[in-house]
Amino acid sequence: MRWSLELIPLHYRALAAGICAYLLWPFAHAPQWQWQALWQSEAETAAALAPLMSFYTKYGEPALPALNAQLELNKLRDLELSLIAANADFADQVRDDTWAEATEFMIAHVAQNVGANELRIYDSECRNNLCRIELAAPKGLNPEFRALVLKYAATLKAGDLEFHDLKEGKDRIMLELKSDKRLQYGYFEERALKPAAREQWLAEVKAWLGTQQHNKK
Q1: pLDDT score of 3 more than 70
Q2: pLDDT the model gives residue 170
Q3: Contact 176/164 with Cβ under 8 angstroms?
Q4: What is the residue-averaged pLDDT of the chain?
Q5: What CA–CA distance (Å, rounded) separates 173 from 58?
Q6: Which domain holds residue 99?
Q7: What pLDDT shows up at residue 40?
Q8: Are 124 and 156 within one domain?
Q9: CA 189, CA 79: separation in Å to the nearest integer?
Q10: What residues have CB less than 8 Å from 207, skipping those under 6 apart?
Q11: CB burial class (10 A; 0-12, 13-18, 19+) of residue 104?
């Protein structure tokens, strides 16, 4: 006789599914650091768990939700730091159109009003938080022209652009400026940085910190 799942009565199948779901439920909600311990070596696991166990020993079971929430927030911080590092160079950046267009307009406007039109811009381009300005330097970067460029950069600083780099060519210089604006990322990167649970994690950490402040009084 050929065995088939359909031969098992429906209520038995439902009961078996319920038992499996009950047994697997704790694993589905386990913090990621518990899952990571499954494929880490014993030494790696011990090193990673040492500060967590110290925290748990000090504050006990009530602190676990806040601890897990902070670990998840730390992962978001590490992800953003890695994205910032990946966008450190001008060539690696995509363009933040709204900010870039407004900043390029400011760059051109300031150049016209610094040094009585002595600055000539060959090209300027802004991307995510970096701008490159190619300036004519027919006499090279002599002291007079250097002073003019420094005055230009100082004026742009008022528009949230800090000096980042300067490269001298034969008859031109490349001035690179950096803004402290938050980088704009693609759709999937933004979703990864701002998951739906982020607000809950922040609330759990804030609530626990509030409890600790109250206990100190």
Answers
A1: no
A2: 83
A3: yes
A4: 80
A5: 58
A6: 90-178
A7: 52
A8: yes
A9: 9
A10: 66
A11: middle
Q: Scan for tokens 């998951």, then name that residue.
A: 195
Q: Please determine, for residue 137, whether its predicted confidence score (pLDDT) is greater than 70.
A: yes
Total domains, the chain? 2
Do the domain assignments include residue 31? no
The residue ranking higher by pLDDT, 131 or 46, is 131
Task: Report CA-CA distances (Å) from 179 to 94, 103, 133, 182, 217.
Answer: 15, 10, 14, 9, 43
47 inside domain: no
What tokens appear for 9 in the block? 């009565």
Judged by DSSP in three states, 206 sits in: helix
Question: Residues 69, 102: one domain?
Answer: no
Tokens 């002595």 — which residue? 118
Same domain, 191 and 118: no
CA dist 136 and 170 (Å) reads 10
- Angle CA(23)–CA(24)–CA(25) in degrees, nearest 5? 95
Which residue is associated with the tokens 């008022």? Answer: 158
Q: Using one digit for the tens of pLDDT, what is the confidence trace for 36-95?
A: 555 556 565 556 666 767 776 777 777 788 888 888 899 999 999 999 999 999 999 999
Are 163 and 109 members of one domain?
Answer: yes
Residue 135 neighbours by CB distance under 10 Å: 22
